[in-house]
Amino acid sequence: MKLNPFEKKLVQHPLRFWLQNHVEARLLTSMMPKPMPCCERALEIGCGFGNGIQLIREHFGAGHITAIDIDAEMVAAAQSRWQARPQGIKGLSFSVADATRLPFTDSQFDIVFDFAVFHHIPDWQTAIKEVERVIKPNGYFVVEDLHRAAICNPLSRRLFEHPQQHRFNHSELLTVMRQTGFKIVCDRNVFNLAGIVLAQKVSG
Length: 204
What we know:
Structural class: alpha/beta
Largest sheet: 7 strands, mixed
Number of helices: 8
Order of helices and strands: HHEHEHEEHEHHHEE
Shape: globular
């Protein structure tokens, strides 16, 4: 499900960029094994306006980042934003794609990122299966997302457009990830409103 106009304004606000690059990046990298594993090929699902690319490049050292979104407007905006930067789009690929039908071969990526996207996906369980398919064995899945209590309430329904059926809480998300073939390396539950998960693909 695409973002509504109000949420698009929120995600491109400078405060959102600052939080992602200075607070969330620190939390996410603190969960990774040390030394940092190889993250040469990265996939970002739901790239939005492209701020996640900066986090992945600077803090995870990805050599090539594939950024996808179901909204063609967002993909065009992200690509335009990075074309205007000094480093340009070297090492970046952009495409319009559905997370439940990823247009990639099996075991293609070292690491996959979900920055608050899966709560927008009606069939999020299938999206997790697709992530597991395209990650290399022993590769990582970084999840930062909102839980059912954060989006299935009167205020959220008034401001945003999120699927309301079959949403997940923290334990339900972890259960599906384990059933799909991931080992939970580290996770943090924030008052069951949001959560951060680092998972590793254990199946070959």
